[in-house]
Each structure stands twice: as C-alpha cells, then as structure tokens.
C-alpha cells in the first residue's frame, strides 16, 4: 500500500522519554511476564508492580502502535449487554459482580489520569448512544432505565435534545451516560507505561514473545531478543494481534479493522454546532459509526472498514459519506488524517478470560470498550496473580473455544459488513 494514502492517528504523541525502555540483554527471572504493551498489559504490569511483584513487559512493536494507540479514545463503562441480560447469562451472584465492575470501569481511567497527573488530554462530558429508528429507540430506552435504576448518572434524550447536544441530523433520540468521556488514547498508553516503570516494572519495546512452554514449574518465554524470560505467571495481552503463541487463541477471535478519519480543526462557527458540549457519540446502526472532537477541535469519526489492509483513500470514503450525512455543514472541510487499527470480536459479544494452563492467563475481546474495560481489569488480574484466588476476577475463567471454519467465518464477516452497510443506507 502507498503510505501516502493514510497518515498516523491524530492524537498528540506524548514525550517518549516519559518511561524507561529497558531491553532484554540476558536471561531473566520474574514473577510475572506480560506479553503485549497495550492498555491491558500495562495496567496489569503497573498494578502488579505496586503489589511487589517483579514484572517484565514485552511489546513486539512500539508503544501505542497496536489497537490501544489507534482507537477512537472513547471511555465507555458497561458492556454490550445490559444489566438484566448479564444477570440472565451469569446468574445473580456473578452477574452482580460483573455489573458493578463494568459500571465503574470508566472511573478507573479518569481517576488514574487525575490522581497521577498523567499528561493525557481528557474530557468527561459523557457518551451518547444515538437512535436512528423506533426499534433502536425502544432498546435504548430500556438500557437507560436499567442503568438509571442502578444509580448511573444517565438520562434519556428526545429528538430535540440529541440534536442540540450533537448538532447531527437523523436521530430520533438516544441516551446520555455521563459516566463516560474521551481521552487521548496514545497519551494514556504512555502514561500507563510511565506509572508501570516508576513502580518497578521493566518494559522492552520491539521485543516479541516467540515461544512459550512450561519448564521446571515455571514458564519459559522465548523472545526475539534471543534471551528467555522465566516467570511464575504469564499474561498474554495481545487481543486482536494474537498469533500462535497460545494454541487456539487467534482462532477463537474474529479480527476486524476499525477505520478512522479526522478533519482539519473546525472554525469557530462549526465548533458551536458540532458536538458543542464535548460528548462522544456512537449510533445505533448495524455498522455503527462513532465520533468525538479532539483536543484541537477536529471531528474524529470511525467505523468498520474493509477486512484487508487499505489500498487507497477510497477505503475511507464510507466514513466521509457518513460524516456528511450527519453533519452536512462540514461539506468542504478537509480530511487531514486517515488511519486504521485491528480489534477483536468474540462470537458471544463478551470479553473472555482464559487460563489454559496454571499460571498462563489470557484476556481478549473488548467489543468497543477496551480503554475502560482493560484499564479496570488490570488491578483485578494483578490481584489474581498475587493471590491465585479466582474471586478476584470479574469474569469467570473459561476454556478457549476455537471458531469452526475460522477462515470462512472471517470471509462471512466481511460479507455481513457489506450487507449491513447497505441495509443501513436504506434506512437513511
């Protein structure tokens, strides 16, 4: 692909010297080896180091070059399923634990930024889920009710209210969850890395895990640095970038590409009509679009893209069409950034926690809520690595279940995305 067709994310790159990159120069022995330096891996490394565990993090790329630095920066509490459905799936006891965990997930992010003084642009004005059909509005009404009775700072929006808050056209209403907000996700990755290294964790970037096996009661992690890391426990925090390191893991997930665009900074008159109060928005379409404003006043809009890597600017055209459908006033505003990243979908739309062998833990499948979910999961995982008590985990451990005919499923998802996009276009 010609690199001129896309650019780096719009997010301000923080000071790279904010954390210490410590290469692996010889064999090492630690309490916890973490494979993957995104939100999950760094949050767990930080929390584990605070608990006195020795920690080594291995990130095959540079910090923020995976999904954690390439996403839209929306910090959303909750899960895809509403509280009543979670109780049906998990039962009263486990369901309540999971609901409480998910409800407070966004708090973890904003509290960490504020109390630790992280250099992370953030706005906590809430998240709007917007309805474009009567059926979607009915579902959102139930969602708002279920969270409000549990004390969530949320409200239902009618057509006039959602038009006022978003400046967008075509919505019947929606709900506003004030627990949510937006951040610079790339800066948050570096902030977590700084906290982890200050707490005593060691991070090596450009170092991948190439092999994993039990040896003498410990885990031996072979690395691309040529030196092994011996660990009592291992966290594989690779999510959508998982490979064959853990048998079956990659084939238990469906990888998708999220494409994003960012406009030029909007002039003052458009700043007043496009998301004037700073909320983030996701809509109710089958192939949803999500959008927010950046710290420098750009509209940032994303959605699902082609299953393969982009080949030209045309692969982002559907996002520009969606932007002008929502905000006709942005006709003629330049698109200055285009980028994409990989995310992982699970077939049941729930995050999965696995421990295929004792001391080897995997968490995957964020379903669009990766920032809040993985930041909040880190301390729970650290508790588990320290104590070995499964009650420390908000999700039950489950076996890895590969998706039958995995390669064909990916082809089918691509066809489904195209079909759903056509149906969405027919609904206006």
Automatic annotation (TrEMBL):
Q: What sequence ranges are listed for the domain FAD dependent oxidoreductase?
A: 31-383
Q: Which UniProt keywords apply?
A: Oxidoreductase
- Any one GO CC term of the record: cytoplasm
Pfam families found in the cross-reference section: DAO
User: InterPro entries of this UniProt entry?
Assistant: FAD-dep_OxRdtase, FAD/NAD-bd_sf
Classification via Gene3D superfamilies? D-Amino Acid Oxidase, subunit A, domain 2, FAD/NAD(P)-binding domain
GO function term, MF aspect, one: oxidoreductase activity
User: What is the protein's name according to its record?
Assistant: FAD-dependent oxidoreductase
Write the signal peptide boundaries.
none
Coiled coil regions in record? none
């Amino acid at each position: 692909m010609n690199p001129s067709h896309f650019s780096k994310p719009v997010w301000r790159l923080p000071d790279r010297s904010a954390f210490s990159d410590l290469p692996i120069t010889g064999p090492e022995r630690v309490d916890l080896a973490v494979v993957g330096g995104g939100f999950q891996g760094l949050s767990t490394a930080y929390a584990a180091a605070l608990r006195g565990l020795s920690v080594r993090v291995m990130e095959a790329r540079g910090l923020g070059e995976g999904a954690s630095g390439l996403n839209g920066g929306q910090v959303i509490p909750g899960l895809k399923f509403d509280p009543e459905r979670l109780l049906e799936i998990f039962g009263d006891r486990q369901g309540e634990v999971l609901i409480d965990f998910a409800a407070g997930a966004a708090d973890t992010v904003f509290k960490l930024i504020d109390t630790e003084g992280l250099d992370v642009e953030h706005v906590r004005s809430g998240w709007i889920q917007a309805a474009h059909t009567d059926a979607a509005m009915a579902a959102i009404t139930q969602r708002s009710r279920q969270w409000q009775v549990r004390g969530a700072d949320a409200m239902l929006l009618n057509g006039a209210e959602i038009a006022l808050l978003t400046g967008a056209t075509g919505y019947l209403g929606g709900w506003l969850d004030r627990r949510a907000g937006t951040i610079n996700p790339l800066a948050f990755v570096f902030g977590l890395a700084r906290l982890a290294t200050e707490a005593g964790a060691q991070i090596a970037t450009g170092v991948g895990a190439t092999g994993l096996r039990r040896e003498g009661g410990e885990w031996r992690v072979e690395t691309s640095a040529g030196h092994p890391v011996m660990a009592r426990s291992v966290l594989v925090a690779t999510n959508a970038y998982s490979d064959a390191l853990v048998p079956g893991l990659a084939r238990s997930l469906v990888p998708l590409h999220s494409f994003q665009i960012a406009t030029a900074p909007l002039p003052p008159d458009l700043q007043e009509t496009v998301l004037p109060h700073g909320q983030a928005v996701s809509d109710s379409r089958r192939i949803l679009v999500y959008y927010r404003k950046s710290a420098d006043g750009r509209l940032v809009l994303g959605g699902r893209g082609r299953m393969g890597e982009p080949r030209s600017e045309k692969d982002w055209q559907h996002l520009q069409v969606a932007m002008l459908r929502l905000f006709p006033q942005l006709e003629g505003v330049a698109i200055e950034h285009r980028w994409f990243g990989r995310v992982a979908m699970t077939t049941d739309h729930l995050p999965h926690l696995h421990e295929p062998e004792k001391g080897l833990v995997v968490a995957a499948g964020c379903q669009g809520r990766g920032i809040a979910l993985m930041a909040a999961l880190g301390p729970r995982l650290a508790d588990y690595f320290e104590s070995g008590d499964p009650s420390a985990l908000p999700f039950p451990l489950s076996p890895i279940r590969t998706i039958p005919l995995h390669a064909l499923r990916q082809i089918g998802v691509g066809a489904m995305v195209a079909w759903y996009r056509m149906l969405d276009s027919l609904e206006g």
